[in-house]
Structure formats: C-alpha cells, structure tokens
Design goal:
378 residues, Rossmann fold, six-stranded parallel sheet, 14 helices, 40% helix
Length: 378
C-alpha cells in the first residue's frame, strides 16, 4: 500500500502522538508499504524509509512547541506524484483539513484518527464555552472519512455520542523491548532526585501543560516523607509550575529519550499521572512496561490500561485528595504486593506491542480500500 499521512505534529516534537506515528511508520515500511508524511517543517526529510514533506508553519501562541502548518497548493503536486492508495489524517486541525480536502478532490480513500481530547483542553485554557462549537467542527471534519479510529474504548463511545460516524478502536501499543524493569539504576535514581537515591522518587513524564494538571502532584510530594518529584518533558506551563513547586523537592529534568527515558521509568518508585484529558495515556503503558507502579485518574482512556489494585492504582476524577489517597495506598502496601503489582503491570504492557497495533491498522486500511473498490465497481 502507498499511504499519505497528514499530521499536525511530528519529529523533532516529542509526545504520545509522535511516538505512535514513529512506530507505526517503521512497521508499515517493514511490511513493504510506502509512506509519505505531511507535517510542519522540522528539518527531517526522511524517517525509517518514509519521505517527509515539511510544510512551513507558525508557532501556536499558547503553545510555541506546537506549530500550525497551513495547507498549500504544493500538497496536491506532492500527492499526485506519490499517488497514494489511501490518506490517513491524524488529529485533523489545520494541515489535516488539507488532507481531507485533497482526499475528496483526488478521490482518494480517507481514514482519520483522534488522539487529543481537544474539547476537554479548552476548559484548562479558559475557553470552555467553545466546547460545543469545537465538537461540531470535529464532527464536520471526521465525518468526511470512511473510517475514524480512536485509541481507547472510552473515546470511541464519546465520539459516537457526539455524532461522529464510522468509529472503531485502534489498539494501544508500547515498545516493550525498550522499556524494561532491568534498566533501573542507582545512578539514574541519583539524577532524578538530585543526589538522594535512597529517598522515594515520584515521576511524571509528558507534556508540561495546563491540561495535564501536574500541580496536583504537590500534595502527594508533601504526603510521602522525604519524597522527590522528577518531571520529565517540557511545555508552556513549565514556568508556572516551577513557581508552584518552589521550595519542594522537585527537579525539572527536561526531555529524555531512548534508554535514558527507559531507565528513568524503571528507576522511579511511582509514576503519578493526574491528567483527566487522556484519550489513552501512552506514558502509563511505558511506565508499566518498565515496572514502575502507576497512580492515575480513572478518566478517559486510562481505565483501558490500568485496573485498580491489580496493575496500578486509580482514583476518581472528582475525588478530593484522590491522587494523595491512591499514592498512599501504593507506598503503604507490603513489598510483596508492590512487586506483584509491578509484575502484572509488565504483563499487561507486554500484550500490546507495536507490531500487532500496526498489523491491525493495516487491516483497517485494507478494509477501507476493499470497500472503495467495491463501491467503484458498483
């Protein structure tokens, strides 16, 4: 198959969407497919054999790491040269609308996928009144596609409830070869805790932005004696959070990748994730694969990953001090119980390799192509 992917974010940006796309592209290319990626310019011309068509873009005012790429007529020329069998639009916003438009104009089958719960994000940026309008715009865009994919069962239901049609589940994936418990090290513990490896270490990995509700980890830090917090990642909320956590044992590490990131997961005592806006929560799967116990809100796609008391601890999204209570459950559990929880977490993550997730996606691609061929013949 020849697949053109339109995405609002790609390398060198680092987030859960980019992680999924990286592994998906790599496995598609391994399967003999050819991939062309349209994304905001970032300097890359190729990734794992896939060509990258960078589109000039401007930084998003509220989030400079994200860039708005405006569709241009050159997209059509590139598509006509590549001759894709199918267009896959990831999180259609601005550039993705160009993908939708050219799929219609050039009569190319279209798949869209939903990864970021934007309507919920609005409330964290003071514009929650626009949620209804945004759902209407999302419905208008997604209903142009022959198939819409979500990465958790909860989000499948939510999209259907908001009038988006032809929705199915794209299963989760995690790199279980990269994230493993044996990568724990005292050196990494010392780095995360700024020289206090013997103390409890709490970990957060992900975007440092308002919708992640990272400030809710502060009471946990205060409730666990001698605990240190390491925040891995970056984003527009960092300065505000540095002020919020001033005077606490908090270390803003910045970005880590590859084996360093895997070692950070494996070396921490708990992964704390208070976000209520996750369509899946890929970082939770990474932590679980690395054997790091997780504490998370029972919201969005997270219950698809974490079963309370079995492979992690959940708290109700509206429960006052819920994240503190769940974290205390973890730290007061007997060592044998914690080890069993870590083992079950690793077992759960091991079920969801990227090869299987991409094989499922290829089946979706083929089903859309088969339906298109059938419709053309009719």
């Amino acid at each position: 198959m020849r697949i053109a992917i339109f995405t609002e974010t790609f390398l060198p940006k680092i987030d859960g969407i980019v992680t999924r796309l990286r592994h998906t592209i790599e496995h598609l290319q391994r399967s003999g497919d050819q991939v062309l990626v349209f994304c905001p310019e970032g300097g890359l011309k190729e990734y794992k054999g896939a060509k990258i068509q960078g589109v000039s873009a401007i930084p998003l005012p509220l989030y400079p790491e994200l860039k708005l790429a405006i569709p241009r007529p050159t997209l059509r020329k590139a598509l006509e040269k590549f001759q894709p069998d199918l267009i896959h639009v990831v999180n259609p916003a601005i550039l993705g609308l160009g993908g939708i438009y050219y799929a219609k104009v050039l009569d190319i089958p279209l798949i869209a996928s939903y990864h970021t719960h934007l309507p919920q994000y609005l409330h964290h940026y003071g514009v929650g009144a626009l949620e209804g309008l945004l759902w209407e715009l999302l419905k208008l865009a997604h209903n142009q596609a022959q198939l819409n994919l979500c990465t958790s069962s909860v989000m499948v239901k939510e999209l259907v409830n908001h009038g988006i049609e032809r929705v199915d589940l794209w299963q989760k994936g995690v790199d279980t070869e990269m994230f493993q418990p044996h990568l724990a090290s005292n050196m990494m513990r010392s780095r995360l805790s700024q020289g206090n490896p013997e103390h409890p270490i709490l970990l957060y990995v992900g975007r440092v932005s308002a919708e992640k509700q990272i400030e809710e980890i502060k009471p946990v830090l205060e409730a666990i004696p001698n605990a240190h917090l390491a925040i891995i990642g970056n984003g527009p909320h960092r300065e505000a959070l540095e002020a919020h956590f001033a005077g606490t044992r908090t270390h803003f590490v910045g970005y880590l990748q590859g084996l360093e990131l895997a070692s950070a997961y494996a070396s921490a005592d708990a992964f704390i994730f208070p976000s209520r806006t996750e369509t899946l929560g890929l970082v939770l799967l990474e932590a679980m694969a690395a054997g790091c116990p997780v504490v998370a809100a029972a919201s969005g796609g997270i219950p698809d990953i974490v079963t309370d008391g079995v492979n992690g601890y959940l708290f109700a999204p509206d429960q006052e001090d819920g994240v503190v209570i769940a974290s205390q459950r973890l730290f007061t559990a007997a060592s044998g119980e914690r080890e069993a929880l870590k083992s079950r977490a690793r077992d759960e993550a091991a079920r969801w390799g990227w090869a299987a997730a991409t094989a499922q996606l290829r089946c979706y691609y083929q089903s859309v192509l088969d339906c298109d061929l059938f419709s053309s013949a009719a």
